[in-house]
Design brief:
Number of domains: 2
Strand content: 15-25%
Structural class: alpha/beta
CATH class of the largest domain: Alpha Beta
Largest sheet: 7 strands, parallel
CATH topology of the largest domain: Rossmann fold
Order of helices and strands: EHEEHHEHEHEEHEEEHHEEHEHHHHH
Distance between the termini: 31 Å
CATH architecture of the largest domain: 3-Layer(aba) Sandwich
Radius of gyration: 20 Å
Number of helices: 14
Shape: globular
Strand order of the largest sheet: 3-2-1-4-5-6-11
Amino acid sequence: MARIVIIGGSGHVGTYLVPALVERGHEVVNVSRGTAAPYRPHPAWKAVEQVLVDRRAEEAEGNFGSRIAALDADIVIDMISFELEGTQQLVQALHGKVEHYLFCSSIWVYGHAVSVPSAETDRPNAIDTYGTNKAKIEDLLLQQARRSGFPATSFRPGHIVGEGWVPVNPQANTNPDVFSLIARGDELVLPNLGLEMLHHVHADDVAQWIICAIENRAASVGEVFNTVSAQALTLRGYAEAMYRWFGKEPRLSFEPFDQWRLRLKESDAHSSWGHIMRSSCVSIEKSRQRLGYRPRFTSLEAIQQSVAALIASGRITVAQNHLKAGHESNFHHW
C-alpha cells in the first residue's frame, strides 16, 4: 500500500476520501492549517498523520515544495492549488520523488460552451481569474508529464455537494433561503427561461474518482478528466424537482436576467451570473472508459442529501406541519 499525502484533506472531498483511503490500507498524511474539521466524523481519522502547514506562508518563503517532499510520499493529492507559481515550486520539489501527483482543477476552466456536453478535448476558455489559473496549472502539468515524465493527473470537479455543504440552488447561487421558499410552496422567479445548466457532483463521487485514478495510474497520468455527476440540470428542471421533493406543486415565473438580478442581493446576483454565463454541462465519458468511474449519485440525489442535512441543522426552514404530514421520509432517505 502507498503513503499518500493529501494537501487540504480536511475539506469536503477529504471528508470522504481520507476514510476511503485508510480503509484500503493506505498510510494517509493530511496537510492543512489545522483550522477545519471533517464534515462527518469517522474512526479512520485516528489513523491519519496530521501535518500543520500554512501553504501561502510557506510558498512565499519558497519552502512549501521542500516541506511536502520531506514527507516522503508515494502519492500526493493537491486539493488546494490555485496559483501557477506555487504549483511550479511543488512540481520542482517532487520531481523524481513521487509515483503520482493529482491536481484538483475545476470545470470553470470552461467558459462559454462551444458544444455540449463539454469534453476534455475542448479547448479551455476560462472567463475569470480562478478558472484561468486552474487552466494554467493544467497546462504546466501536462507539459511536465509529456516532456519530463512528471506523473501528473488533473481532475475537474463540478459544483461539489454533500452533507454539510450548501448546494448551488435553482437560482444558481448558494443562498439556502431559496430552498426554504420552495419548501413553503411559494413562487420562485428564475432568470430568462430557466434553461441554463448546472453540473453538480457529490464529494463522495469526487473521492471515488480519485481512487479510480490512483488504481488506474497508467491510464490517468499525463491526462485531465472531468469529474461530475452523469447529467447536468437545467435551472427550471432542478426547481421543479425540488418543489416535488418537498411535496409541493412547482410555482415558477421568469424574467430577463438584467431585470431578475435586481431582486437578489448583490453577492447572490454576482454568484448567479457566474454560473449562468457558463451554463455548465460536461462529459464524463473519458473517465468512464479509461478509469471505470461510475458516479453513485445523480445531481438531484447529491443535492437532496445536502438539503436534508441543512434541514436537520436548521439552516433550511421547513414547516413542522409539513414534516408531520409524512414527508419527513424524503429528508432522511439517504
